[in-house]
Design a protein that fits this description.
The chain is α+β, with helices and mostly antiparallel strands and about 750 residues long. It has helices spanning about 20-30, 30-55, 70-80, 125-150, 160-185, 195-215, 220-225, 230-260, 265-270, 280-285, 285-300, 325-330, 335-360, 365-385, 415-440, 515-540, 545-560, 650-665, 730-740, and strands at about 85-95, 110-120, 185-190, 190-195, 305-310, 315-325, 385-395, 405-415, 600-605, 605-610, 615, 625-630, 640-645, 670-680, 685-695, 700-710, 715-725, 745. Helices cover about 45% and strands about 20% of the residues. Helix 2 runs antiparallel to helix 4 (about 125-150) and helix 15 runs antiparallel to helix 16.
């Protein structure tokens, strides 16, 4: 038709935001109120700590030069160093001079004085408390997110919701720290204080992201690592290293604090006798710093101090000193040296024993945990020191360079990093190498030795009898497992359970001379670590560089004697994974690490797992063959284990089929899928299904079901279900996680 425009050649696509834009859109449209609540915890901690530090007058009895507000701002600047801030003083003063003459004979009108001073110090106590406060706030936010998701039946359970919330919390924490750092910059009597706001905000951002993502994004990270055995091994090793580091720091902090209480005239030595401040209160802010120093001395390293200065008038000079085991013996007595070595021995054995217990049978991961622990100790040693830099310029203000003088100086204290590196390798390497043998020799049950068991019918009940093939270690605690209903077309299992039988081990003979083995092993570690440390210190005193180099080579060789590393078994997958224990393929029992409050359930159908203590197997319903229930006295909480021999389908297909019936089931209204996805469990193809529904009693039920097909063709579905208002947030997923970590098939 004339005058009608032709149709467009194509229709433009709707404009959609990029993935990054969509992510930030969700982030900024999210729950800011909950993020504010989480961010307030560490910020309030800094404010409360600053108020406490600003309370004393610090000897200003008659004339108060620094008021409470200025003391508060200075205290904040000091505390912000715990997250990366700085502390720098700068001043400029012009003083009139009357009747004076310069070197050239001209009369000078005034004198200019200006200088700067920087303090380099990280109060690790505040750093630890700041992280703990943020951790508490983020955990509260996590519970808030879960409750809001459960209360919204049609809500979105996005896999990145945790990361978006973590970004909001980190941004708020960063903004709060930046505001505090800008406030913490007073000017007092011509002296300006700088808290390095940018560095403080950057440190808060990095720490905030690490802590927030670790708590809120944990489940997503666990899913992504489920199919990566290498990543799981690193996580297990890092978790063990962190636990050992906490134990070591607590022990060394107690020793250091108790040692300070025994020092006479400590206030005078610390130059706090006129400041109305107890030096022990100051020591509380420095406990981790002191703990690292005590640990280094116990291993044979020295605390070093150095002072240097230079001026345009007098030239330069430098002085240094050290305090180690030999100086400790001179100041106190030989028993103090023995106590320091004993502290170093206990700290080294802590990481060795924890690695041997938590990572039993995985020598490679044990040495990896020791390496991570050692790296963390070195990192703390690098940040535990104290340093001051001072520079100044003074002279006449007439513009002549001849009447001006300048100078600078530095003071540094801290544990010697090279010595910690050398002696730490000796101590930790020896302890990690000896700890598994130590536990095995003393008959540690459930770790490296044979577990205690009950006699089996037909098996010899005498000490030393061989273990029954296919039996499972029976630890004392364990979580529970659920069940997945088998499809109607699935064949029923052919078994008739008449009674619960727990195939056990025969009692293992008690090792002989365990006390002697303990003494010999500890003495060996003491000789390897303490003897080498003392010997190398002696060689260093002799002044031979070649001897020191040879000792360093020996230390490296000792630390690398890990031998062949065992491959890490693939850990099972589920929602939250605190610390997966060693998993095994069908027929390989491995080592079961059962947490407190759980015990191993061994089923006549040929499997075992950990369930809460006191739970028992219920009779099988004849109308539901192949579905085995374990429950306790609480009522609704239960594990349901489905067993289907020669399964003609994949676990994922089976879950999809069951889900269709679940949606229309009258006893499962308001069904909501949380996730249903393929995964790998103990090296076999499987699937995990998590969902919620409302039962006939109007209770919200949460269920997690892990299914897989074993090597023999049998499908096992391990489901745990619980009332959401009965168990605390995260407890149900943790119970299911423990069951999966301890799940084992018993070979015939």
């Amino acid at each position: 038709m004339p005058g009608t425009p032709p149709p467009p050649a194509y229709l433009p696509r709707p404009v959609t935001p990029s993935p990054v834009g969509a992510f930030f859109g969700r982030t900024f449209r999210g729950d800011w109120a909950g993020a504010v609540q989480a961010a307030l915890w560490p910020l309030v901690l800094l404010l409360v700590g600053a108020v406490a530090l600003a309370g004393p007058s610090y000897g200003q009895d008659d004339e108060v030069v620094v008021g409470f507000v200025d003391r508060l701002r200075v205290s904040l600047a000091l505390l912000l160093q715990s997250v990366g801030g700085g502390f720098e003083l700068s001043g400029h003063e012009r003083r009139p001079v009357f009747g004076g003459t310069s070197d050239l004979g001209s009369e000078s009108s005034d004198q200019v004085l200006q200088g700067t001073a920087s303090l380099h110090f990280v109060p690790l106590t505040v750093t630890v408390l700041w992280i703990v406060a943020l951790l508490i706030g983020v955990r509260v936010l996590r519970n808030r997110i879960r409750l809001r998701a459960a209360a919204a039946p049609g809500g979105v359970h996005g896999g990145t919701a945790g990361f978006e919330a973590a970004v909001r919390v980190s941004l708020l924490v960063t903004a709060g720290v930046l505001a505090l750092a800008l406030f913490a910059q007073p000017e007092i009597e011509g002296v300006e204080v700088s808290s390095s706001p940018v560095l403080a905000a950057l440190g808060a951002l990095l720490l905030g992201l690490a802590v927030s993502c670790g708590v809120l994004h944990r489940e997503d990270l666990a899913h992504r690592m489920a199919a990566r055995p290498g990543a799981q091994a690193v996580v297990r090793a890092a978790g063990t290293a962190l636990r050992a580091l906490v134990v070591v720091l607590v022990l060394c902090s107690l020793v250091a604090f108790i040692s300070l209480t025994q020092v006479d005239d400590l206030a005078e030595l610390a130059d706090l006798d006129e400041a109305d401040v107890s030096p022990l209160l100051v020591a509380l802010l420095l406990l981790p710093n002191l703990a690292v120093t005590a640990l280094g001395i116990g291993w044979g390293a020295s605390a070093e101090a150095s002072a240097s200065g230079a001026s345009s008038t007098y030239g330069g000079s430098r002085q240094s000193g050290s305090f180690g085991l030999s100086e400790l013996g001179d100041v106190t007595n030989d028993w103090a040296v023995v106590g320091a070595l004993a502290l170093g021995l206990v700290c080294a054995l802590t990481i060795g024993v924890l690695a041997a217990r938590r990572l039993a049978g995985r020598r490679g991961e044990q040495f990896l945990a020791a390496g991570i622990f050692f790296g963390l100790v070195l990192l703390l040693a690098a940040f535990s020191g104290f340093g001051v830099e001072v520079s100044g310029v003074g002279g006449s203000g007439g513009g002549s360079e001849f009447g001006r003088a300048s100078g600078n100086g530095t003071v540094e204290t801290g544990i010697g990093i090279p010595e910690v590196l050398l002696f730490g390798l000796l101590w930790i390497g020896a302890a990690t190498f000896l700890a598994p043998f130590l536990l095995q020799m003393v008959g540690q049950r459930g770790v490296a030795g044979a577990p205690m068991t009950a006699p089996v019918p037909g098996a010899p009940a005498v000490p030393g009898a061989p273990a029954v093939p296919g039996s499972v270690p029976t630890p004392t605690h364990s979580p529970a497992l659920p069940h997945s209903p088998a499809p109607s077309h699935s064949p029923a299992p052919s078994y008739v359970p008449t009674m619960e039988v727990t195939p056990p081990y025969a009692p293992a003979p008690k090792p002989r001379g365990s006390a002697g083995i303990w003494v010999a092993t500890i003495a060996g570690a003491l000789v390897i670590g303490g003897g080498a440390a003392a010997g190398i210190l002696f060689w260093q005193d002799g002044g031979g560089d070649d001897k020191t180099d040879g000792a360093a080579k020996g230390a490296s060789a000792s630390a690398s004697r890990s031998g062949p590393q065992d491959p890490s078994p693939v850990a099972s997958e589920a929602t939250e994974s605190p610390e997966p224990s060693a998993s095994a393929d069908s027929g390989d029992l491995g080592v079961v690490n059962v947490p407190e409050g759980s015990e191993i359930m061994t089923d006549p159908e040929g499997f075992s797992f950990a369930a809460p203590t006191g739970w028992r197997r219920e009779p099988v319903d004849p109308q539901r063959p192949g579905q085995i229930t374990y429950a306790g006295s609480t009522g609704r909480e239960e594990f349901l284990v489905g067993v289907v021999t020669d399964a003609p389908y994949t676990s994922y297909e089976n879950f999809l089929n069951i889900e269709k019936h679940t949606k229309s089931a009258p006893d499962k209204s308001d069904y909501q899928r949380v996730r249903l996805e393929r995964n790998t469990f103990q090296g076999r193809s499987g699937a995990i299904w998590e969902y919620t529904y409302t039962d006939e009693a109007d209770r919200t039920i949460h269920a997690i079901d892990q299914s897989y097909i074993a090597e023999n063709g049998t499908e096992y579905a391990i489901q745990f279900s619980w009332r959401e208002d009965f168990l605390p947030a995260g407890e149900g997923a943790k119970t299911h996680r423990t069951a999966l970590d301890t799940w084992r098939l018993i070979s015939d």
